[in-house]
Every structure is written in C-alpha cells, then in structure tokens.
Amino acid sequence: MDGFERLDAPAEALPAASVTGTLYGVGMGPGDPDLLTVKAQRILMRAPVLVHFCKRGKRGNARTIADAILRDPDRELALAYPYTTEIHPEHPDYVAALAGFYDDAAGRLADHLGAGRDVAILSEGDPFFYGSFMHLWRRLKDRFPVEVIPGVTGMSGCWTRAGTPITWGDDVLTVLPATLSLDILTERLRGTDAAVVMKLGRHLPKVRAALAEAGLLARAVYVERGTMAGERVVMLADKADDAAPYFSMVLLPGEGRRP
Amino acid sequence: MDGFERLDAPAEALPAASVTGTLYGVGMGPGDPDLLTVKAQRILMRAPVLVHFCKRGKRGNARTIADAILRDPDRELALAYPYTTEIHPEHPDYVAALAGFYDDAAGRLADHLGAGRDVAILSEGDPFFYGSFMHLWRRLKDRFPVEVIPGVTGMSGCWTRAGTPITWGDDVLTVLPATLSLDILTERLRGTDAAVVMKLGRHLPKVRAALAEAGLLARAVYVERGTMAGERVVMLADKADDAAPYFSMVLLPGEGRRP
Fold it and tell me: How many C-beta neighbours within 10 Å does residue A240 have?
C-alpha cells in the first residue's frame, strides 16, 4: 500500500505535468468500502480529480462509498445527470439530452487530462458492467491514456449477503435488466438455471409476474442495499410491497451439481 | 487497515479460544494481487489457517495470487483434488470421489474450527460464483459461523484487460460453461446480447463452432490469464490453435445503447 502520503494534499499542490493525465475508471464495489480493491483505494487517494455521477441536488452513490477514505472535497467533480425520468430511455429527446450531457462532461474531463491531471471516475460495482463510466470512456479513450480497475459487482455483493451461491457446476447464469418486456423476461427466466435481475425500480411488479409465469417465484430472493447500511434480504414472495430503490435486485440462485 | 500485527505469527502462538472459529470464504479476485479487496487482505493476514485447493503435486491458483502478501507456510492447508480428468464430471465414480474428497476436507476444517481457529478458504474470483468453496460451505455452514467476502470475478478481470465493456444499456448477459453441448451453446449464444464462456479447457473447438454457427465468431474475444503475468488478449478468429489453459475465457461484448 502506498499513496497515503498524498491523502490530504490539495490538487493544486501537485506539480504540473508536461504530459497528459490518465483517465482511471475505478470500480467502487457493491457498497461496503471494505470491498474496494487495494488498487482502487490507492488511485482514490492519489488522483487529483475525482469524478462521480449524481442526480441534481443529491450525492452520488459511488461517492458515498468513498466516504470512508476521502476527506478532501477540493478534488471532487460532480456530474449531475439531466434527469428526465418521465421520458422513455429510448425516446430521442432523452437520448439527445444524455448524449449532450456526456459530451459536455467529456469536455470538462479532457481539460483536466490535457493539463496533465489524472482523472478518476468513481464507478459503482465494476466500470465495464452497465456503467455510466463507459460513455465517458468511449469519448476519451482515443485521446488519453486509460486504465480501468475492475470492481466487485453489485450482484456479487447481493448474492454474498443473501448467503446463497448463484451458480453451481454447469449452471447457466443470465443477467437481465428489468426494463425488458414481460414476455422477454419470462422467456429468458424459463431458459436459464440462474438469474440476476437488475435495474428494478418501477419494474418490480413486471419482474414478479414474469417469475410467477415461469414458475420460479418461490425461488426468487429480493436484496436491497446489499453490503450497505439498511441492507434487506427477503424471499421475493414474502415482500408485500413493490417498492424497489436504486440499489436492489432479484436473484434466482442456481441448483446445479453438488457432489 | 489492521491485521499487520499477526502477519508472521505462527498459528500455535494464538490463544486457544473457548468458542468455535469462523469459516471465511475469501474471494481472491481475478489474479492480480492488487485486485484483492481491503477486507480479503485483512482476513488473509489474520486467519491462522489458510486453505487452498490444488491439483496433486502443484500449487493452487488461488494460493499463487496470495504470494504477494503471505510469507508464512505454517498457516497453510492444501487440499489436493482427487483428479481423474479422464472421467466425465457426471460419471457416478467421479461424483463419489469428489464427494468423499469434500467430506474429508470438511472434516479437517471442522477440527480447526471446533478448536477455535478461524479458517480462511482462498477462492479464485468470487466464492459464490462457480467456486469449490461452496462445496465446503454447504457441509459446514450449519455448524460454524461463516463469512463470505465477495471478490472481483475472473470475467470482470478479463473484460477489463480486453479493454471492452461487456454490457451497455439493456443488454442481456449470459454466462455459459463451455461444458454444455454444441446445440445448447449455439442456442444460448443466439439468444443473448453479450456472453462469457467459462471453463474452456478442451472445449474450445466446440465453443468456436457454436459461435460460428450463431454468426458471432467475428465479435468473440479470447482472454488468457487476464490481469496476470503471461496475459494474452486476441480476437478468437485470430487464435490459430485450440489450446486453452485453466485461466482463459471467451467474451462476446454487448452492443447496446450508447447515447
């Protein structure tokens, strides 16, 4: 472990570099700061610019994970999504708003990188697994050095805290966004041994219906805020309401070979 | 970070406890020791008994990952598989041999746990994701306290090093053991947006055929020893031979929404 020496050094105290900075995509893990990797922790302590995504007026989830080790807001750059949750994610207006947001954010990061400052983007879970990071990476990867640090995924954190292995032997695992249609969800659930359903939000009633239709509801586990404060693990069939916050998912553990 | 104080203390120097020890399943990550979590590292430094699986006469892969931080072989317990690779994994003789091996190993760990010694099982990747750990966990979890520490999976390490996000937007990800039949592999590959094919071994020609049949061979990436020394990343179509060591997999990156 190194990097401690710079923990409280303000960004402006670092020497100006004659070369460009490196863009880091830092996997922040599932929530518990103890599940950061050694490498992620080192980069978080060192990088002069720490970027996180958030909703307007709120702190970002990835940033909250870093609370345990970061105490210098001078290094922080918050990127507030142009949230328009009333619009369907495939609606042209929404896509255009997001594209503009990512273009603008990439420009801001490019200014730092061009001035020789390393930029670390805090990414919930693993940066290359359904992450907003990828949209900035795509815009910057051909202009600046990039390093991605994989992280423990939210789903690993959830099945661990649920106390259930997800795959045994030759089990097939399918990871499904809850945004898919009822028919597609049902078909995919029927055709797999194990499943993780992500991005629940307002789609939980549909996910419940798909599991019931596939005859799998009794095996499904609901996990909320896995590895974090306020964690909740319950069989989905026993969950009375259909509220599902951002950090929640449904697990269908496999039942494969167990010698 | 704590735990350093016990780093070089031999197991017998620890005080005898009046309560049972805790069984830890420690996710060792994809290979690079810098990708251990802070929590995994702490437990590795502390636990008086460190268990790893291996083939007869060889060091285990999970144990090799720990080389960077462990220097006290007195704490180690190696469990050598009764490897009979000529027998099909579903053959009754093989299942019986494995079951006997796990029963015996669980008995040895129970002796340590019953004597109050914590036992840490080093598990490649994430312990609850296709891990041998689960077979000991299943035999011991109702008798002793258990804590599982999720890890960065081998597949996260591989797609990171391949420099390719695996899932975008609403992509469905399917994780497939290469041990499945050609027909099933082909069907599953056809019906997904993104895929990871694990456990390649001697099955690589079949995986290649399934990808070609599904019209996906041109998109497939082969990764060997991701995050480790000797790492190799190549488009599968450009890989001339069919050799695939233990630490290898095939990735089919998703092509979902990119605002």
Answer: 6
Instruction: Tell me the two tokens of residue A48.
Output: 């002069």
Half-sphere exposure of B205 (CA within 13 A, CB side): 4
Q: What is the mean pLDDT of residues B176-189?
A: 97
Two structure tokens written together for B2:
């704590």
Supply the mean pLDDT for chain B.
89
Residues 187-206 of B with CB under 8 A from A: 188, 191-192
Q: Pick B86 or A162 by higher pLDDT.
A: A162
Average pLDDT across chain A, whole number: 89
Residue B165, both tokens: 């996000």
Token pair belonging to A156: 């690993």
pLDDT tens per residue across span B232-254:
999 999 999 999 987 899 999 99
Sign of CA dihedral A198, A204, A208, A213: negative
Structure tokens at B239: 């890989």
Alpha helices by DSSP H, listed for B9-153, are 38-46, 61-65, 92-114, 133-140
Chain center to CA of B191: 26
Q: In what order do the strands lie in the sheet with B232-235?
A: A232-235, A221-224, A248-252, A194-198, A173-177, B173-177, B194-198, B248-252, B221-224, B232-235
d(CA A200, CA B237): 37
B194 bridge partner residues: B173
Is the CA virtual torsion A207, A88, A154, B176 positive or negative? positive
Q: Kindly determine whether residue B157 and residue A150, on different chains, have CB atoms separated by under 8 Å.
A: yes
Q: What is the ipTM of this complex?
A: 0.90
Specify the DSSP element, H or E, that contains A93.
helix A92-114
The residue of B142, B175, B181, B192 whose CB has the most chain A CBs within 10 angstroms, and thus the best one to mutate to test that interface, is B175
Interface contact B152-A37, CB threshold 8 A = yes
